[in-house]
Amino acid sequence: MNKNYIVKKNRIYPILRKFSQIAVTFVIVILVLLISFIVIRGISNINLDFLWGEYNNTPSIKPAIIGTTILIILTLSIAVPIGIGTSIYLVEYTKKDSKILPFIHVTTETLAGIPSIVYGLFGYLFFVVYLGLGYSLIGGGLTLSIMILPSIISSVEENLLAVPNVYREGSYALGAGKTRTIFRVILPCASRGIVTAVILSTGRIISESAVLLLTVGMVVNKVPNGIFSPGTTLALNVYFFGSHGYPEAGEGTAFILLILIITINFISSSLGKIFYKGIGDHS
């Protein structure tokens, strides 16, 4: 081996290692400062009236909690069945050399890369204006379901592909049909991964604001009467309180939002470790 190459290699590696350590330290410091700032500023503004009181002279996030809950249920009830069904079709019914498979993958990846504000503009023009739904939770839920659909399809497809083929072959050998194999064998094996994908999608729904700003209406002082009425979410409340002279309420809402996001990420990470451990045990 060339001696000059060895000398250069020995000189470059310590530099790269030092740079990596500095980069990691920088990221950790920024993360700690951000979380500390939100916790210190927000926790002092949390009380029962703020969480579940009536929105009179003092701000309350009760309408946002109810609106966020409705949006989560509405969005997942639309996107999850469609996403799982699409993934099952791609993995179990489409041939590997099918020409439609690359097209669907490209389409899914393209939809996943579109900025959320574009989804919001589409939701406003199509659901709010063209279909006449107006500013409503149903309009926001339909738009969010389209936005999270690509990530659900990709995640579920990967988990279905991770199920060993021996399970399918064993099920067929015992006389089970395609449908029975899918629902009794394949989906249970991939259930943890599917749940993880759903939880991560829930986190995106909770933290989304650009889409809902153009579709839901941001009515922060009234509890929504149903899915066809306007409403608000926790993310929208942070924007509203911060821009309308309620900084303390915005800080409290940001603290609640941070706790929810951390909890969701922790749950999804734990389920992911269990899932991959189970796959490794079966391999």
Written description of the protein model:
The chain folds into two domains: 1-43; 48-282, MetI-like fold. 78% of the residues lie in helices and 0% in strands. The chain has helices at 3-43, 48-52, 62-93, 100-113, 116-130, 137-161, 165-173, 178-189, 191-207, 210-213, 234-243, 247-282. It has twelve helices and no strands. By secondary structure, the protein is mainly α. The model has no long low-confidence stretch (mean pLDDT 87). The radius of gyration is 23 Å and the shape is globular.
CATH architecture of the largest domain: Orthogonal Bundle
Structure annotation, total helices: 12
Largest sheet: none
Radius of gyration: 23 Å
The CATH class assignment of the largest domain is: Mainly Alpha
Which strand-content bin applies to the residues? under 5%
